[in-house]
From TrEMBL:
This is Uncharacterized protein. GO terms for cellular component: nucleus. Keywords: DNA-binding, Metal-binding, Nucleus, Receptor, Transcription, Transcription regulation, Zinc, Zinc-finger. It comes from the Eukaryota. Residues 27-99 form the Nuclear receptor domain. GO terms for molecular function: DNA-binding transcription factor activity; sequence-specific DNA binding; zinc ion binding. It is found in: Nucleus.
């Protein structure tokens, strides 16, 4: 335990077994056949068998027919047509097959050429662009990604809201969980005040009542995520149903990546939360506590959940950030790519928008690296792109664990976490 601390015990936080949660990070079930030990392949968490099936079917452009007219339930019904359709439904992308190998091969063939375009088709066809006249970052503007990246960095600064000044106390911090996600997308500020996010600042006490601490921190991070996501033009090209479903499923990716990147940015020992708080490993045999340093410079949320999150973030994400010296520009593009990755159960129109957006931001990442590192060979640039994209399954895994923990808190109303917004994010199908 750190010296000179005030200790506030939080009895209601759910206790977890470190062995069990570490086992969670060791494997996932396949989205297609429910087999264990799945990893990210072509946009979904799949086992090796389903990966190979999708790879061969996509490369051979085979067409299977279902004897029951597409009414099978794979894997109970061993139907190849319905198996492939389930692959597509869960977000697997045929256009991603062989993309990375082609990228390296093309770069090696001609070291003097620029980094090959990651896209296979134009990012937004005339049909998809016509869905929203508000869409203003069209493919014709891709020749100057600098302005787009600068725009994304500006959005991140707006979400942080650090320019409004730093405060030592938010005793009148207004917040609520009783806002539907659809309403929050129209009026994000209903969730809470846009205080400075406080990743780098000293501790900012949110209220006199420590029992509401977790809810307040959750609300501020949720507002940060919503302010960011509503700035993406692509989500407004979708129907409201698809928009809500996409955001509810992908929000955790954005939140954990934001926390991890700012932890790297400010070289914190735990994982930065907001308002000066951070997750840290459980200290010795301590139960679940919040430690607040006497000089109000640091606060620690310590429990089994935070221990596993810190271990995973530092070993799997921050180690790569440090190795490649991830830049702010690469971070905001990775955040966009992560948001538009592996989402099933959307309409065909929304699925097309998500896939196009994923290719678009991958392209912008490649172009940014090409412009910012002119001394790199095309092969070196391609490898850097792949290292950054290789972070996606790790972000997803950390996000799934975070989402499951918060779902438990919301379902059991631990720390008062039951509300309409937590229901929509963590408990809805």
């Amino acid at each position: 335990m750190p010296d000179h601390v005030e200790v506030m015990e939080i009895d209601e936080l759910p206790s977890t077994s470190l062995t069990k949660v570490r086992e969670f990070f060791a494997q996932d079930d396949c989205d297609i056949c429910n087999s264990p030990a799945a990893t990210l392949h072509y946009g979904a968490m799949t086992c090796g068998s389903c990966k190979v099936f999708f790879l061969r079917t996509s490369m051979a452009k085979r067409v299977f027919l279902c004897d029951k007219g597409g009414r099978c339930e794979y894997p109970r019904d061993r139907c190849r047509a319905c198996r492939f359709q389930k692959c597509l439904k869960m977000g697997m992308n045929p256009e991603a097959v062989g993309r990375r190998k082609q990228l390296i091969a093309s770069a090696k063939e001609n070291e003097e050429d620029q980094l090959p375009d990651l896209s296979i088709v134009p990012y937004f066809t005339e049909k998809s662009a016509a869905r929203s006249r508000s869409y203003h970052l069209e493919a014709k503007k891709f020749d100057n990604p600098t302005k787009i990246v600068s725009h994304l960095l500006g959005i991140e600064r707006f979400c942080d809201n650090e320019d409004t000044g730093k405060y030592s106390s938010y005793e009148n911090f207004d917040f609520t969980l009783d806002v539907d996600l659809s309403e929050a997308l129209q009026f994000p500020g209903k969730i809470c005040r846009r205080t400075p996010i406080g990743f780098s600042s000293g501790l900012q006490i949110c209220a006199k009542d420590p029992s509401s601490l977790f809810r307040q921190l959750y609300c501020r991070l949720t507002l940060h995520m919503l302010d960011w996501v509503v700035s993406l033009d692509e989500i407004w090209m979708m129907s409201e149903k698809d928009r809500v479903r996409l955001i509810s499923r992908q929000a955790a990716n954005c939140v954990v990546l934001t926390m991890a990147y700012n932890t790297y940015r400010f070289d914190a020992s735990g994982v930065l939360f907001c308002h000066g708080f951070q997750l840290e490993k459980t200290l010795g045999d301590s139960p679940e506590f919040v430690f607040i340093t006497a000089d109000l410079k640091r606060a620690i949320i310590a429990n089994d959940f935070s221990t596993v999150m810190v271990d995973f973030a530092h070993s799997q994400l921050l180690s790569v950030f440090r190795e490649i010296h991830l830049s702010p520009e690469e971070y905001v593009l990775l955040k966009c790519i992560s948001f538009f990755t592996t989402v099933g159960h959307l309409s065909d129109e929304a699925t097309e928008i998500v896939r196009n957006a994923r290719r678009r931001y991958e392209y912008l990442l490649a172009k940014h690296i090409e412009e910012e590192r002119p001394n790199f060979s095309p092969t070196a640039r391609a490898i850097r792109v792949m290292k950054i994209l290789g972070l996606l399954p790790k972000i997803m895994k950390m996000a799934i664990f975070d989402d499951q923990y918060l779902a438990k808190m919301a379902a059991l109303d631990l720390q008062g976490m039951r509300g309409r917004i937590t229901r929509d994010f963590h408990l809805s199908d």
